[in-house]
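To illustrate the input format used throughout this study, we show a single complete record. The first block contains the structure-token representation of the backbone; no residue identities are included at this stage. The design step must infer an amino acid for every position from geometry alone.
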């Protein structure tokens, strides 16, 4: 049977919060949804989009009597939100988050969590480069992983209830410790974003020499980086600052491997270059076989003749 909470409080109503709101309504996962956002403008937009039943700029007000509280704010704001809601949480409530880093979120939130609630940190591996309440859409979490990093004394029944909630959204659940999560995400998500921010920044710095060419010929590889590089600056600043150690470790590895490739090019070592590119091509195939992407060429973008048909 699908799970249903009496009241869910969504703290933060950007891309992730609003996608949750769409699905909670569509799937009937709560009798009532209360939405909090710090700015009146965002809250007004959430109301226009009819994302919830009640709206407030006070997170403390929103969590009153909520059985499930989902915090979807930039990771650097987790501590201040936890502090604000701590005195208003209902005994037995499940408090979770969706933040892209986990050790830092736990360090910020756990000290404010009263003993009578179940705090279960989480991270859905789903998103886009858009932000704000208009960016959300139903089905964002379908077929994607949601990772929990529960604390040692986490109540099994609360973890099971939260798992059923995410499963109802179509997610697959994994459980790991926060440090492991942060290392894995540093390589699969944080480093690729940093490379994209950096390469687009470099092209921009080349300025007047290449400006028109950069835009004109962008389809040849550069364009795929610009999608990642268009991601929300606040969210990604916070990810960098709050997963510092794992990101620096992965950046060091990346720099070493780039130097190896650079050397192979300098010395004309074609075999080394070919072997690397063969290995990386196989990884793309594994991702498709694992159902994490479709096998359409050019990420399924329509080409001239497709557009006409
Ligand atoms: P978003 O679209 O930018 O929305 C952020 C929300 O947090 C807004 O409601 C905003 O409120 C609020 N907020 C911003 N700064 C705040 C502060 N200092 N104090 C309190 N509230 C604040 O962000 P998002 O993409 O939904 O990301 C939310 C969380 O999900 C982040 O922790 C991120 O790491 C994680 N996440 C993101 C993705 C992704 O692809 N985007 C994927 C997985 C997980 P106002 O608009 O009212 O200021």
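Output of the design step:
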């Amino acid at each position: 049977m699908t799970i249903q909470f009496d009241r869910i409080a969504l703290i933060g109503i950007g891309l992730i919060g609003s996608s949750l709101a769409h699905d909670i309504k569509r799937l009937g996962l709560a009798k009532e949804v209360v939405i909090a956002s710090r700015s009146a403008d965002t809250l007004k937009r959430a109301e226009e989009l009819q994302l919830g039943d009640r709206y407030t700029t006070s997170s403390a007000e929103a969590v009153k009597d909520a059985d499930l509280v989902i915090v979807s704010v930039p990771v650097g704001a987790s501590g201040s939100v936890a502090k604000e809601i701590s005195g208003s949480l209902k005994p037995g409530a499940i408090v979770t988050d969706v933040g892209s880093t986990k050790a830092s979120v736990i360090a910020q939130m756990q000290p404010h969590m009263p003993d009578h609630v179940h705090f279960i940190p989480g991270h859905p591996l789903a998103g886009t480069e858009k932000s704000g309440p208009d960016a959300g859409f139903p089905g964002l979490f379908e077929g994607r992983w949601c990772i929990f990093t529960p604390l040692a004394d986490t109540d099994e029944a609360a973890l099971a209830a939260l798992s059923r909630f995410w499963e109802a959204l179509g997610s697959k659940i994994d459980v790991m410790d926060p440090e492991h999560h942060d290392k894995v995400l540093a390589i699969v998500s944080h480093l690729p974003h940093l490379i994209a921010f950096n390469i687009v920044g470099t092209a921009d710095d080349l300025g007047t020499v290449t400006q028109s060419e950069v835009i004109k010929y962008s389809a040849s590889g550069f364009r795929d980086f610009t999608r990642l590089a268009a991601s929300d600056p606040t969210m990604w600043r916070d990810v960098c600052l709050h997963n510092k150690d794992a990101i620096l470790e992965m950046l060091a590895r990346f720099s070493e491997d780039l130097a190896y490739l650079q050397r192979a090019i300098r010395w004309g070592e074609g075999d080394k270059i070919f072997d690397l590119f063969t290995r990386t091509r196989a990884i793309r195939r594994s991702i498709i076989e694992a159902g994490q992407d479709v096998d359409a060429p050019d990420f399924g973008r329509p080409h001239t003749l497709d557009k006409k048909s």
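Structural context for interpreting the output: The pocket of NAP is lined by residues 12-17, 37-39, 42, 72-75, 77, 80-81, 98-100, 124, 127-128, 131-132, 135, 232, 235 (CB under 6 Å). The mean pLDDT is 94.
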